[in-house]
Amino acid sequence: MLFVCVANLNRGAYSGRNLRNKQKAKETSRFLFKKFRRRSCLGCSFRTIMQKDPDLVVANTAKALPKDYFKDQVGWNNWDTEGSITRRKTRPVWVGDVCIGGGSPVVVQSMINEDTLQIDRCVTAIRNLHEAGCEVVRLTVPSLSHAHAVGFIKQKLKETYQDVPLVADVHHNGLKIALEVAKHVEKVRINPGLYVFEKKDPNRTQYTRSEFDSMKEKLKDTLRPLILTLRDQGKAMRIGVNHGSLSERMLFTFGDTPQGMVESALECIRVCEELDFHNLVVSMKASKVPVMLAAYRLLAKRMDEEGLDYPFHLGVTEAGDGEYGRIKSTLGIGTLLAEGIGDTIRVSLTEDPVKEISVCYGILQGLGLRRTMVEYVACPSCGRTLFHIEDVLHKVREATKHMPGLSIAVMGCIVNGPGEMADADYGYVGKTRGYISLYRGKEEIRVVKEEDGVKELINLLKQDGVWKDPPHETNGVSDQHAYLSSRENGRP
């Protein structure tokens, strides 16, 4: 018999499923309380219990809660008992000196919005993105003249700044453009729906099998020269499928669906496989989050079935701007990352591209996939709060935000503060009116006046040898790239 109890010990309430009787539920609650000292609702998740002790014996019976009890829950298969994400295994794909997939940290990308013919402006935009923490930068290449301009951009970057991995975005009938720009960039992105452009026939009512196969052969013939060029130069390709630009034959055959997106990607992947080219990254972007999620999940399933292990580039295209654009991107990208899917990400905002970078790193930090900033733990405040926590959190953040990898908790009172901040490196907790306690881990180090709190926190960091002076800023943008370069778990 498996006992699963949802209990609130503070109120003495209980409910049960698969319980022999109510007394068993109470016994289970008491047992769990003694084992974990949890004073809040234990049933808010047994995942916490699973993480602490997967072999837990419930209610003093000889029956153990099986390790795989929660494995049928959505997304749980991708989390180990320590709460870490188990990522889908993919092959490493090198884009310059940046590795995508193969267990490397999830790579952050973006795209400049300058006209590629404006060489100086492009160089400045690429540099700004790179200094903000963008590891791979994409630029549009709509014509041969733009392809030639990329060569000058690359050269000027090396002369005035440093080499930055570049991706060329090639679309309509792009073979000649792609072959030229491949000389100057580390990766070429093609859109299967536009690379061999088919002008839509408004009078068409169906695609015959022979017509479908004919266009498939045309795609193979057009892809082959680019694939061979990239293979011989040791460069990479992204097969970037967009929901809004599926080819006409895919729309007629599979509809405007995630399946159509998947078939479009697999068709190109198989051409690359035939030519022994494996330096591939795949993306399945859509402006609707449910469509994007379905497409990536289906492609991952199909690729796993066929033994294909290419890394995924994640993104919600045309997400918009402001708060909603960030929420939309986080829902799409974060959901897949939590399921173990995704090796590189781009948040697409209708704003200055530099603003995309902090959102990317926020998603990765929130999921525990990368630590590139300070992790702040702070309570929402309530009537027990002994100081204006919003102001204090802002002051603490401004004083310490340049030390990525550190975890600092700011808690309003001692009721929940010490327990909720137990995983933080340092804590700032309201003690009594006008005084705060400073913690190192779970240990209270000193009690100081509230007005001296931030200064004394810095002194504690200096005393422990973890304090670093703030880095310089460039054009008002913190040198996030310097942080990444010095991080232990940065890019390989």
UniProtKB/TrEMBL annotation:
PANTHER family listed in its UniProt record: 4-HYDROXY-3-METHYLBUT-2-EN-1-YL DIPHOSPHATE SYNTHASE (PTHR30454), 4-HYDROXY-3-METHYLBUT-2-EN-1-YL DIPHOSPHATE SYNTHASE (FERREDOXIN), CHLOROPLASTIC (PTHR30454:SF0)
Cofactor annotation: [4Fe-4S] cluster
Molecular function as annotated in GO: 4 iron, 4 sulfur cluster binding; 4-hydroxy-3-methylbut-2-en-1-yl diphosphate synthase activity (ferredoxin); metal ion binding
UniProt-annotated stretches for the region Disordered: 469-492
Keyword entries, A-Z: 4Fe-4S, Iron, Iron-sulfur, Isoprene biosynthesis, Metal-binding, Oxidoreductase
Classification via Pfam families: GcpE, GcpE_C
Organism encoding this protein: Galdieria partita
Domain IspG C-terminal, residue spans: 375-462
Protein name: Uncharacterized protein
Record bears the keyword Oxidoreductase: yes
SUPFAM superfamilies assigned to the protein according to its UniProt record, in alphabetical order: Nitrite and sulphite reductase 4Fe-4S domain-like
GO BP of this protein: isopentenyl diphosphate biosynthetic process, methylerythritol 4-phosphate pathway; terpenoid biosynthetic process
Domain of life: Eukaryota
Domain IspG TIM-barrel: 90-361
